[in-house]
Amino acid sequence: MNDYKNIKTFDDLIELEHGKIGTESRNQYEEGAQMFIVSEMLKSARKEANLTQEQLAEKAGTKKSYISKLENGKGNIQLSTLIRIFEQGLNKKIGLTFL
C-alpha cells in the first residue's frame, strides 16, 4: 500500500501512483490520460454539433464503430484521421501544442 503522508502536490501523487517521468508505467498512464482527453473532446464536440456517431462517421469518411471506440478511449488514432474527423466531420480546427 502506498504512503500518502508526504504527498503535497498533484505531481507528487501521480509520481507515487504511476512512477517517475520516463518510466514505462508513467508513460502508459500519460498515454491513457491523453487518450481520455481526446475522447472526451470528441464526444463533447459531436454532441455540441447535434450529430450521432453514425452521422459523424459518415461526414468524416469512417465507421460508426470507430467513432464509438475513440469516444470510449479504446481506439488508437492516427493524427491524420483525428484531423479529418474534427475538420470534415465537425467543422472544427485542431491546434497542437508541444510541451
Overview of the structural elements:
The chain has 99 residues and is mostly helical. α3 packs across α5. The chain starts with 9 loop residues before the first helix and ends in a 10-residue tail after the last helix.
List the helices and strands and how they pair.
Elements: H1 10-18, H2 24-48, H3 53-60, H4 64-71, H5 79-89
Helix pairs in contact: 3-4, 3-5
**Spatial shape:** elongated
Provide a count of the helices. 5
What is the percentage of strand-forming residues? Answer: under 5%
Largest sheet: none
Q: Structural class, from secondary structure content?
A: mainly alpha
**Helix-strand string:** HHHHH
Kindly report how far apart the N and C termini lie.
32 Å
Mean pLDDT: 93
Low-confidence stretches: none
What is the C-alpha radius of gyration, as a whole number of Å?
17 Å
Number of strands: 0
Helix amount: 55-70%
